[in-house]
Write a structure and sequence with these properties.
The protein is globular, with a radius of gyration of 21 Å. The chain contains 14 helices and 14 strands. By secondary structure, it is α/β, with parallel strands linked by helices. It binds 4'-deoxy-4'-aminopyridoxal-5'-phosphate.
């Protein structure tokens, strides 16, 4: 049997998609004009599926800092911080994040994915238990595979179910860790962090929150949903990525426990190259912008509410309340791929999301709003969705 045989279900999905139109996986941008505008197939499109929540990818201070870092320290670090040494940029960024988050220890990792992989897999040892939300991101699931402990899943966003599972699985030999996210990446729904934290701590477990999508976009200072819900000081471990609000690549995990420094022995920290000087410098500049300009996310929220309200009025099946991620449920993968293509033909780039990224085999049109979107751009997006709603109505009437 061919070693590639296992990919045939994927191939079948792809061939069904290309019969409908372009495959939504791996769309090519010919050019990126701004945080909200790109060129696909020679045509300018509004991008509303980029996770560029604060719209800082073209921010002058970030671009200047990245260029200066290349001039000063070169294009890459060419190695791991353990084997090949730390650059001043990495240590400075760790100090700044630590202070901003009000934590005792912060470690910068090469990506957001590796942040969770490293921290969770190293924290959960052979005698330990890790409790994860069923809708956790792939990197949290992968971290549990790399860890040597026991993994227990609880129902999505269900503090009662977590409570039950913590009660049932007493662990006298080892430690217990609860892992949740802030804003969930597919539906844009929010974790009840106050309840989750209370339940975890009542059972003597520690709590780990991945705020990949909510760092920068929530909280008066931009410190995420934990800050917005007033529980930041109760979080044991807080992770986020540089690839969304910070408009770069890399990630960090902060902890109120100074012993977190020990996690520099984790494998995905030790055995991979550290982020390039330019990625670190632009993340540092973006962080400084978040620190110095409160209200950077005000327009993000205004545009998110505008979009959510408009789509709800058109009758689209929205997965959650208004937030910077707005997901529309479609009845089938074929329908979602068809809509994705229609929207692109009409100048709007959104994300198609399906399994394994989505839970329960659901197909979504996933939109992520940016603080850089203007009211006019959102109106344009809404007018294109209006034509899609009209097309769907006509198609349903004809069938
Ligand atoms: N956590 C969550 C919840 C995510 O959605 C993602 C990526 N979308 C990551 C972690 C990984 O981040 P990165 O892409 O920066 O590696």
């Amino acid at each position: 049997m061919s070693i590639f045989e296992k990919f045939s279900p994927y191939l079948e999905r792809m061939s069904r998609a290309v019969q409908i139109g372009r495959s939504p996986i791996g769309i090519q941008f010919d050019d990126i004009l701004s945080p909200t505008r790109g060129v696909i197939e020679g045509k300018e499109v509004i991008m509303i599926g980029t996770n560029n929540y604060l719209g800082l990818t073209f921010e002058e201070s970030c671009v200047t800092a990245a260029k200066a870092a290349i001039d000063a320290h070169g294009t890459g670090t060419t190695g791991s911080r353990v084997a090949n040494g730390n650059y001043v940029g990495h240590t400075k960024l760790e100090r700044s994040l630590n202070k901003f988050m009000g934590m005792a220890s912060t470690i910068v990792f090469s990506t957001g994915y590796q942040t969770n992989l490293a921290a969770i897999s190293a924290l959960v040892g052979p005698k330990d238990q890790v409790f994860i939300d069923a809708d956790s991101h792939a990197c949290i699931y992968d971290a549990t595979r790399l860890s040597t402990g026991t993994t227990i899943r609880f129902r999505h966003n269900n503090a009662e179910d977590l409570d039950k599972r913590l009660s049932r699985s007493q662990n006298t030999d080892g430690a217990r860790l609860v892992v949740v996210e802030g804003m969930y990446s597919m539906f844009g729904d929010l974790a009840p962090l106050d309840e989750m934290t209370e339940v975890a701590h009542r059972h003597g477990a520690m709590i780990y929150v991945d705020e990949a999508h909510s760092f920068g976009s929530f909280g008066p200072k931009g410190r995420g949903l934990s800050e917005a819900m007033g529980v930041l000081d109760k979080i044991d471990f807080y992770s986020a990525t540089f690839s969304k609000s910070l408009a770069s690549i890399g990630g960090f995990c902060s902890s109120k426990h100074p012993q977190f420094e020990l996690l520099r022995v984790s494998r995905p920290y030790m055995f991979t190259a550290s982020p390039s000087p330019s990625a670190i410098a632009s993340a540092q500049a973006a962080l400084e912008k978040i620190i110095s300009e409160e209200g950077l996310h005000d327009n993000l929220w205004a545009r998110a509410r505008q979009l959510h309200e408009g789509l709800a009025q058109m009758g689209f099946d929205l997965a959650a309340d208004a937030s910077p991620i707005i997901a529309i449920r479609r009845h089938s993968e074929e329908q979602a791929v068809r809509d994705f293509n229609t929207l692109l033909d009409r100048g709007v780039y959104v994300n198609f999301s399906g399994p394994p990224a989505t839970p329960a085999g659901i197909s979504l049109l996933r939109l992520s709003v940016s603080a850089a979107h203007t009211e006019e751009e959102i109106n344009k997006v809404l007018s294109v969705f209006q034509t899609l709603a009209q097309d769907n109505k006509v198609a349903m009437a004809a069938s």
